[in-house]
Amino acid sequence: MKIKVLFLLIPFLGFAQDYEIYNEKGASLVSDKSGIAVKFESDIPNFNQIEKKLQDKGYEITTNAVNNYFIVKKHGVQYISDISGNILKLPYSKNKSVNGNWQVLYPTRKGTIFMMKNWENKPESSTSNNIEIYDLKGNLLNKNLGPNISFKMGMSNYFSYIITKNGDFITFHKNGKIGLLDEFGKIFLDAEYDKIENNGNYLFLTKNKSISIFEISSKKKLTTTFEEVKLTDFSNNFTSNYIISKLNSKYGLYHLPTQKWAILNQYDDFSYFFEKLGFDQGTKKARLDDVIYTTIFLAEKDGKKGAISIDGSIKIPIEYEIVNCQEKFCKVVNFEKSRNKFNLEKGQMEYKQFYKEIFPVPNTNIIAVKLNNNWKMSDENTHEIYFTEEDKITELISKFKYLPFLNVKFENNQTGIFSLKTKKFIIRNGEFGRIEGTKSYMYLRDKTNYKTFIVNRSGEVLFEQEKTKGRFAYSKSNFLRYKAGQYKKIYKCYNLEGKEVHKSECTPLYGN
User: Fold this and answer.
1) Do residues 19 and 231 touch, judged by C-beta distance below 8 A?
2) For residues 401 and 319, what is the distance between their CA atoms, to the nearest angstrom?
3) For the chain, what is the total number of helices (H) and then of strands (E)?
4) Could you give the CA distance from residue 235 to residue 93 in angstroms, rounded to a whole number?
5) What distance in Å separates the CA atoms of residue 285 and residue 252, rounded to the nearest whole number?
6) Nearby residues of 464 by Cβ (< 8 Å), 6 or more positions away
7) Using CA atoms, how far apart are residues 450 and 448, in angstroms rounded to an integer?
8) Sheet holding 103-104, edge to edge
9) Single pTM value for the model
10) Where in 7-94 does DSSP place strands (E)?
């Protein structure tokens, strides 16, 4: 895990949250988080009490907890607090104008603390003499790391704090190149690289546009070098051992422990299948930034796209113009601009053929499809047909997610209203409208004979009225009918069963 720090460490507030890992069937894989030492507020049982304890002493928590320690501030000066709210005894700057501006880093898991004096004020070449390393009791372990060693480089002013199972490391800069220090300030990798990244037990070292891989546990470089690697922002058993790599201008999936291609590099593009926000918004997964499937990958070759599994089997044939995955489905579009959906759980296409347009009715097995110029609708499970291309429906004007109707347009430009509850047309030439004073009911009106239907949001017709014009309103369990253009005087009044009641029993919505 790599933590980038800019200036005064305040960006720790913006850590990406943990990820959940899934295979292509949606089954959760065990995530190996032993190498991740970051804790968020929700991970600390007594966070509110700890925060109050520090606030009572004038300290403000400015970061998440790393290795069970916070960076806190008081009067603009940085301090380190343990996860119980106790300030470590270190030589903090009390007066920046006298002692300089100290920058403190989190304690490593070995219990060492890097402190840098004159962080903002000294040029790059002079900062090396102002880096000191302390233990948790405030004892000085090391200072003056060497000439021209800096945690700054040009205008970027950043370093990376790399946390792994096999130790914590901090990048440093020397003569415009990047190296690594271990927990005690000793050089682990010389400063000869343009970029250093990590994933699990491996470091990825960029030098002259070539990427070599360093195994931390053995302290050895792997033999293969790459043109590009695609790393994730988290580490688990899968992503620590497999990386998407580019060699000879082609992408594939590389298995680091065996140093062999799990999926041969033969693709023009290759990427993980991510889901923004996760697919289960009603559960704890809803708080996640991303969900990732680690056994299925999106691939592109010769301008065509598809998906391939970790075992090399083709999940979605690589023959489509667009493959766009969301939730447990991938929308696929062929070069004739027709579309289908690939079901990741079933491992097959959702529909028997490709259509120009597809509209699955939410929370049902009903699907409306457009093959040529007209729509048809049926039940995917029972195969019951509700309307066909012969009905000459050219357009679904409204695809309501929360209403039990479809507003459709026929070839003759008339508008029909189809009930998703009864699976029948209520009217074939009409309109629907809201009933003022309520969100629970609405009216549907046939323009041919002006018959009006009062319906609830479940799609049930409560009652119907012959030849009605004008506006409907709702007030205290009664429906009020007003004549067109006369909206201050009740014309008729009906109860919920549609029976007419005396106007004196109804409460005006607009006033008489």
Assistant:
1) no
2) 32
3) 2, 47
4) 36
5) 29
6) 451, 452, 453, 454, 498
7) 6
8) 103-104, 112-116, 131-135, 140-143
9) 0.64
10) 20-22, 38-39, 60-61, 65-66, 69-74, 77-82
Cα 249 versus chain centre, distance: 29
Q: What's the rounded mean pLDDT across residues 255-260?
A: 92
Q: How far apart are CA 130 and CA 119, in angstroms?
A: 9
| Cα separation, 66 vs 55, whole angstroms | 20
State the CB neighbour count (10 A cutoff) for residue 88: 18
Which whole-number Å values give the CA distances from 161 to 4, 49, 134, in the listed order? 6, 28, 17
The amino acid at 43: D
Q: Residue 41 to residues 34, 55, 87: CA-CA distances in angstroms?
A: 18, 16, 18
Is 173 in contact with 152 (CB distance < 8 Å)? yes
Contact 120, 7 (CB under 8 A): yes
Residue 353 pairs in a beta bridge with: none
The radius of gyration of the chain from alpha carbons, rounded to an integer in Å, stands at: 33
- Cα–Cα distance measured from residue 411 to residue 143, given in angstroms and rounded to the nearest whole number: 83
pLDDT in tens, 347-378: 788 887 888 888 887 777 888 888 888 998 98
pLDDT digits over 317-330, tens only? 899 998 887 666 78
Q: What is the C-alpha to C-alpha distance for residues 117 and 34, in angstroms, rounded to an integer?
A: 32
